Amino acid sequence: MNEQVPKFSFGIDMGTQNIREVVLSEMNGQITVVGKIESSQNGGMSKGVVTNLRNAVHALEAASIEIDRMIGMNLTDAYLSINGSNVGTAPTQGGISITGSEITEADVARLKEFAVSGIVPDNRALLDVIPVEYAIAGQGGIRNPIGMRGVKLEMQANVVSALLPVCMNLKEVAGALNINALKLVPTAVAAGRAVLLESQKENGVAVVEMGAATTSVAIFMEGFLQYFGVINVGANHITNDIAISLAVSTEVAEEIKMKYVTAELIDNDKPMTMRFGDESISFTKTMVNRIVEDRLIDIFEHVKKEIAIAGYEKKLPEGVVLTGGGAEMRGIERFAREHMEVATRIGLPLMDVTHIDNETKKPRFAVAIGLALMMNDDMREQETRVEEKPVGFLSKLFGGGR
User: Fold this and answer.
1) Distance CA 85, CA 98 (A)
2) How confident is the model over 6-29, as pLDDT tens digits?
3) Which of 215, 287, 319, 327 could pair with 363 in a Cys bridge, judged by C-beta atoms 3.0 to 4.6 Å apart?
């Protein structure tokens, strides 16, 4: 009997405020969190874009040294998150003639390459091609055509792409530490892998990933990603609003936010005083609530608009799933449900992970866990693939090294 060897998958969530890394190990079908780290970004990123290469490298290096120490090895392959308004989806379709007796993986790869031809401009990088449905000889609704017979194969799909310089800079940060970024995955898409059931993706659901500087929205329907969009508003805007309204520094405002801010908005006019060094500031919970309420309304109004732009207003039976650090605010689930008038829940990263600690179960780790799970999924698929992987097209998606 062959001895089982654990397989490791590595997810790196490169956020504006924090880097979160998760390493999963799969053995005998059991997936376990064997390493996780959360550390400060230190000014290297802003709204999904590398703004200071040196700072970003130093921040990732600190996190990666710690994760290597934690798991006792040096992992060189990883899936990285990508975020920002430069990331988007576009529909496409195409068809090819089938020359063999049955449809093969090579035929599907050739169809994808044909379908994206001319869709992705030279200044953008192809991140993924997500088939919505296939059709053989006009018969649609086919999810997986491999092994079927027909003379013509057609496909409708969504193309996910991002600005090429943004992708290159992210890979440059990882490459500086000898980490091969095999794939860049939009944040809310990765979070969806960690928090959604297949039935929810089938029925229709939106994942809202609430980060520090941005809020991203991924919409799934009929089992596939249909839309991805990013709103340039996040939890840091609440900090900035408090700083401006109370005339304090952002450092002080962040402490006030962490100690007093909730989405429950229970007013209290009793004065509160906090001291910061030689300085003291007085405010009431009611004052803070008004500041927070205005910003939360702004965020969820943008989310509603994003869902409407995608064409899914009042068309998501599974509602909205909130992930990210912003989703850990007390009362946020109820606030979002009442304001957007849609079923809402907090997304906890529990999908397919049999051993996970309480800290990693929190919404802010959903992206990193989702990235590691997606990497594990692809490793499984490659192991079970019968035919040799085509070189040209899929290497753009999975061979994204430097």
Assistant:
1) 38
2) 899 999 999 999 999 999 999 888
3) 327
Closest to 167 in 3D by CA, of 377, 37, 62, 14: 14
Question: 377-398 burial, b for 16+ CB within 10 Å, e for fewer?
Answer: ebbeeeeeeeeeebeebbebbe
Residue 346: what residue type? Answer: I
Q: At what angle do helices 285-309 and 235-246 cross, to 10 degrees?
A: 140
Look up residue 198 and give its two tokens: 């297949």
- DSSP-H helix ranges across 221-355: 235-246, 250-260, 285-309, 332-340
Cα separation, 184 vs 333, whole angstroms: 29
CA distance linking residue 339 with residue 328, whole number of Å: 18
Contact residues for 149 (Cβ-Cβ < 8 A; gap 6+): 101, 102, 103, 136
Question: How far is residue 12 CA from its own chain's centroid?
Answer: 10
For residues 321 and 307, what is the distance between their CA atoms, to the nearest angstrom?
Answer: 13
Residue 355 burial (CB count, 10 A): 11
Q: pTM for the whole thing? A: 0.91
Neighbours of 275 (CB within 10 A): 8
Write the pLDDT tens digit of every residue in 250-299.
Answer: 988 988 888 888 998 888 888 888 887 777 888 888 999 999 999 999 99
How, if at all, do strands 344-346 and 320-323 pair? parallel
Q: For 356-399, how does the pLDDT look when each residue is reduced to its tens digit (9 = 90+)?
A: 888 889 999 999 999 999 999 999 888 876 444 544 454 445 44
Which tokens is 341 given?
Answer: 């008038």
d(CA 272, CA 285): 8
Residues 177-229 have pLDDT tens digits of 999 999 999 999 999 999 999 999 999 999 999 999 999 999 999 999 999 99
Phi/psi at 202 (5° precision): -70, -45
**Among candidate residues 149, 126, 127, 119, the one with its CA nearest the CA of residue 136:** 149
Buried b (16+ CB within 10 A) or exposed e, 123-144: ebbbbbbbbbbbbbeeeeebee
